[in-house]
Amino acid sequence: MREAVRALLSLLEPEQVRELRAGPSRLDAPELREWTYLPGARPGLCTEGLGGDQREAVDVLLATAHSAPGADLARGAIEVERYRRTAVGAAGPDRYWVRLLGDPDGEGPWAWRLNGHHLAVHVLVTAAGIRVTPHFVGSEPARVPDGPQAGRRLLGPEEDLARELVTDLGAGRRAKAVFAATPPDDILTRADPFADPALLPGGLPYADMTTPQQQLLERLVRRYLDRAPAVYARECWNDAVRRGLDTLSFAWAGGLVPGDRHYYCVRAPDFLIEYDNTQDDGDHAHSVWRHLRHDWGTDLLRAHYAEQHH
């Protein structure tokens, strides 16, 4: 990851470097917890004006925050957004914003993030580890209707696993899991700086599921965690197992038939997952992975700054 940052820096002009590195000195500054997945400008260096080698270097950096499947997903969000922009007649290249915070060649914590419409990745690195949340991927349309990407469902696995789970539930269990016939029009935590699990419905506990249903929920959770580099994804999963998978719960709203507008979430003591496909008549999907302790690298930063004061 450090080498990818260095490679990008080596290709940028001085003014571009200033845009890339603009930000507060402390990585726990409140302004750094402001984010969005909606269209519009962000702080940082915009990819719109980058040359080919520079843009390729950004793509390489983006991949370092992910596993191979996670990198495909992040890259796919950019590709589907290109389709959307063409479909609505938007001119010009991609518009994502990259920020570099801190010194990747120093001994202290440092961070970078890439943010744009339907893609938000927030990376923090210290000697103790890496963090990559909040992590958001969206797809508009949810299924590409035509062109070279025709039939592509970027978030298809995330949708299909959850639907397989909810449709496998018997009437009693489904009554606990399904909290509304009409789904919310977006993820419930929106772009909140700190995700509040109390916003999410309780749903059906893992402990109340059959073994095959529990296995489906495990696969769904790991689908999100496995966006991250393998070591960190494994750390998150092992934490969940150590705390007890019985602490997981699953909730659904909306229709059960593919194409119906729907929403689901997974709650755990220290992370949450949300997915909605409700806008544009069920053809506009959002997915987010939030970690209550790890978002923005809060736990690593707290440990670092506490150590500095001793």
Automatic annotation (TrEMBL):
<protein>
    <submittedName>
        <fullName>DUF3500 domain-containing protein</fullName>
    </submittedName>
</protein>
<dbReference type="InterPro" id="IPR021889">
    <property type="entry name" value="DUF3500"/>
</dbReference>
<dbReference type="Pfam" id="PF12006">
    <property type="entry name" value="DUF3500"/>
</dbReference>
